[in-house]
Amino acid sequence: MEKLRRVLSGHEDEEQGLTAQVLDASTLSFGTRVKWFAICFVTGIFCSILGTAFLWLPSGLKLFAVFYTIGNIAALASTCFLMGPVKQLKKMFEPTRLIATIVMLLCLICTLCAVFWWGKKGLALLFCILQFLAMTWYSLSYIPFARDAVIKCFTSCLS
């Protein structure tokens, strides 16, 4: 509708920023966004559960690390459908989430490096655990006062 309004008012020659052009070209309806969010999120959960099932197979640690990492990436990418990729990236790198985001992304990369290049299965398992903790801490940053509540809970349990 906005494009039609610009054309009719004679302002179609105005320069748009690259971000605005990308968002205009990839606009999805709300229903489509929710459907793809659900598909991507469920796929991520399925991959993580499948990876956990591989953990119990002989020499299945490599498959576990790969599928668990793919599951986390898919779950993280699913939120791009709800808020858009640009807004998602901006929110990920806000000062309140910056450390959690960097640790999470490093753990994703290090898990795959430990499996494929370094060949250290124990290290891959450690990075999967760190991946889970970083993803949890990152997710808690979206809930108001959730991090503070978790810190208080652990502080009271440890003292």
Uncertain segments of ≥5 residues (pLDDT<50)?
Answer: 21-25
How much of the sequence lies in strands comes to: under 5%
Overall SS class: mainly alpha
The main pleated sheet reads as: none
The number of helices is 8
Mean pLDDT: 81
Beta strands, count: 0
Distance between the termini: 60 Å
Q: Topology as H/E string?
A: HHHHHHHH
Task: Characterise this structure.
By secondary structure, this protein is mainly alpha-helical. It contains 8 helices and no strands. The chain has helices spanning 2-9, 18-25, 30-55, 61-83, 85-92, 98-116, 121-140, 146-158. α4 (61-83) crosses α5 and α4 (61-83) runs antiparallel to α6. It is globular. The model is unreliable at 21-25 (pLDDT under 50).
Write the layout of secondary structure elements.
Layout: H1 2-9, H2 18-25, H3 30-55, H4 61-83, H5 85-92, H6 98-116, H7 121-140, H8 146-158
